[in-house]
Amino acid sequence: MSNGTTAVRAFAAHEAGGRIEPFDYELPPIAGDDVDIDVEYCGLCHSDYSMWSNEWGVAAYPFVGGHEVVGRVRALGPEAKGLEVGQRVGLGWFSRSDLMTRESLGGDHNLSPGNEGTIIGRHGGFASVVRCQSVWALPLPDALSVEEAGPLFCGGITVFNPLVQFDVKPTDRVGVLGIGGLGHLALQFLNKWGCEVTAFTSSPDKAEEAKAFGAHKTLDSRDPESWKAAYGTFDMLLSTVAVDLDWGRLVRTLGPRGRLHLVGVSPSAVPLHVTQLMSNQLSYSSSPLGAPAVTARMLDFCARHGIAPKIEVFPMSKINEAMAHLHDGKARYRIVLEADFN
To answer: CATH 3.90.180.10 occupies which residues in the chain?
Structure first.
């Protein structure tokens, strides 16, 4: 550190889809309500892959990904509140919000206009140090594993937030589409929430694993009789997949006032007619991650019920191998990178 700046060691790609290599840079002197975090672990999410390959057209290079950070507070700006140096915290997709917008004042920081992403327009957590606004650096309960906690700050809150936003009840029957990085966490949350949980799967191997994660039932998506038995039964369907599905047939499995909720981004538009929704007063919705207060509730819920992602750990220096593992669909179910700069 010189003149108040902070030297950072990181891994960056210098072009879309390019090899990720060591990259050093400096953070300016810390100010305002900023927090610097010494990174210990950082999850590797498919959103990191999409940004690295510039799939969404918003990446800037050199690109340092990483938005599922767990580490210790290194330094605090003079206006940062509620944290202490050395405290273990986590950081997810969002890194800064305007705290004076109507949305933030109402507690919906994740819906505030102009939010800054941890890996959009700034360098993320594939680094020795990452900087964010203090409101987005959330204390990690002691009961949670430091190694496993990172994916909760993106994948975890993505599937937990709908339970809070739409007042999912313990008596509800919920179907989960996709037993992967998001879905395996959704099964755990919904089971401990008290719901009757059904996992939609086409693989017998996945069926047994889904039950181990918390599904009470499975629906064989290849079996017409399974579909017939499910028609009109669910209070909510939670889709975690990024593929196009037979949305009309799925809607038929909803009971009165049922909800189809998407947190996975389907490649194409979802073709639903009003008549498919109107007769049973059905709803179709989506949601983005969660506000700091909801994320803190999720972390407490995980600590209370022993909820954690199933992870594979790579040294951060093996990030290219980890990225290939993710791309090839081999992750079971979330990848975590261990910072090994020393």
So the answer is: 6-154+290-338
